[in-house]
Amino acid sequence: MMKSRFFAKVIAAAVITFAAVSPSISDDAAGAPPYKAYVDMKTFMEHVLSPSAAVIWRVNGVIIDAKGEHDLSPKTDDDWEQIVSGTATLAEATNALMIPGRARDASWNPYVKKLADAADKAYRAAEEHDLKSISEVSDQLDGICAACHRHYGLE
Q1: I need a labelling partner for 108 at 20 to 30 A (CA). Which of 7, 56, 149, 150 fits?
Q2: In 3-state terms, what secondary structure has residue 143?
Q3: What pairs with residue 64 in β-bridges?
Q4: Distance CA 131, CA 79 (A)
Q5: To 10 degrees, what angle do helices 108-127 and 50-58 make?
Q6: Domain 36-151 of CATH type 1.20.120
Q7: CB neighbour list of residue 127: distance below 8 Å, 6 or more residues apart
Q8: CA 116 to CA 135: how far, in whole Å?
């Protein structure tokens, strides 16, 4: 019995010591955020946000070529899965827009919040295979993105 108490105290002391010297735990305790921006805003927009938003914009799309008109709306479970993935990526990417190094000024986060709300609505609609709601969000995204780009001179 005495040995097991001693052993438990040794384990507890080791855990506390490890926690105190661990860089990830001690950095968090010191207030340093555990995240950072790895790519610049242009790269983030080009490789994360734009492709995710394009998934939503495409649902209203039509391609006209030599073989005729082709509706781009989802028709199969795989099509819907691509939309679910794109909308989930866009919704989660909005969090990355607000990390230090990306947030531009006090007006930035309200734009991001509008984008996040629209992306969340699109995600929930994609999960339900609700093309009408995704189409509505597609139209909203045009306005949200255009307003932000105008505000920040990104057009």
Answers
A1: 56
A2: helix
A3: 69
A4: 12
A5: 50
A6: yes
A7: 84
A8: 16
Dihedral sign of CA atoms 81, 82, 85, 86 in order: negative
Q: Tokens 């339900």 map to which residue?
A: 128
Per-residue pLDDT of the chain (155 residues; tens, 9 = 90+): 555 454 444 444 444 444 444 454 444 556 777 888 899 999 999 999 999 999 999 988 888 999 999 888 999 999 999 999 999 999 999 999 998 888 899 999 999 999 999 999 999 999 999 999 999 999 899 999 999 999 998 76
Cβ atoms of 118 and 144 within 8 Å: the answer is yes
Q: How many helices (H) and strands (E) does the chain have?
A: 7, 2
- Cα(3)–Cα(7) distance, rounded to whole angstroms? 6
User: Which tokens is 55 given?
Assistant: 């998934």
Please give the Cα distance from 22 to 36 (Å, whole number).
19
CB 69 within 8 A of CB 60: no
- Distance between CA atoms of residues 123 and 130, nearest Å: 10
- CA distance to 4, 31, 98, 132, per residue, from 86 (Å): 53, 33, 19, 17
Distance between CA atoms of residues 39 and 19, nearest Å = 30
